[in-house]
Amino acid sequence: MADPSGTVRVIDADTLDVGDVRVRLHGIDAPEIGQPCTVNGQTRDCGRWARDAVLLQFEGRQATCEQVDTDRYGRVVASCVVEGRDMGAVIVSEGWAWAYRRYSDAYDLDEKAAAVAGRGLWAFEIDRPSDYRAARIQTTAAPDPDCAIKGNISANGRIYHLPGADGYDRTRINLSNGERWFCTEAEARAAGWRASRR
């Protein structure tokens, strides 16, 4: 496969579509959609906040990416550049994600600068995404009651289940496998899930 290039469509703060290719940005880790954080005593969805910040910065722009790997979900893992700027460096230095040192130390100094300045997530009380995923590996309860659509991955593909539908209560969400919660059906469809046939 050729290295992806094309128009950016932001899925979350570390995942995007570049043209028609789903890309997981290499070396960064952003909060999951639905991951809570506390700001000035108020709880908010920091995954959605980070996604929206990345969307404002990069949505609709042209990116050129260099593939590093393919992850277990079939996404291209890549470093991407928009208008001469490394997307990962921008996202980490603005405090919208952390350096993912498990895979790369490329953004270590960007993270340290954001932490010292208290930018973005560094001003919030929040768990690192890897810790959050480990603590919530399997769950049946939505972290946000307004975002209770279950995005499940099975042999039948990526399927979302609406509250009250047959099988909803039996469906567990395993965040470590890429399963997730959605707030709306439109959001689930945009991320590549389809409705359950039940």
At a glance:
This protein has helices spanning 46-58, 87-93, 108-117, 129-135, 185-190, and strands spanning 5-12, 15-18, 21-25, 28-29, 36-39, 42-45, 62-70, 76-82, 85-86, 98-99, 149-154, 157-161, 180-182, 194-195. The protein has 198 residues and is α+β, with helices and mostly antiparallel strands.
Question: What would you note in describing this structure?
Answer:
By secondary structure, the protein is of the alpha+beta class. The protein has two domains: 5-130, OB fold (Dihydrolipoamide Acetyltransferase, E2P); 136-195. The chain is built from five helices and 14 strands. The protein has helices at residues 46-58, 87-93, 108-117, 129-135, 185-190; strands spanning 5-12, 15-18, 21-25, 28-29, 36-39, 42-45, 62-70, 76-82, 85-86, 98-99, 149-154, 157-161, 180-182, 194-195. The protein has a five-stranded mixed barrel. Strands 13-11-12-14 form a four-stranded mixed β-sheet. Strands 4-10 form a two-stranded antiparallel sheet. Strand 8 and strand 9 form a beta hairpin. Helix 2 (87-93) packs parallel to helix 3 (108-117). The protein starts with a strand and ends with a strand.
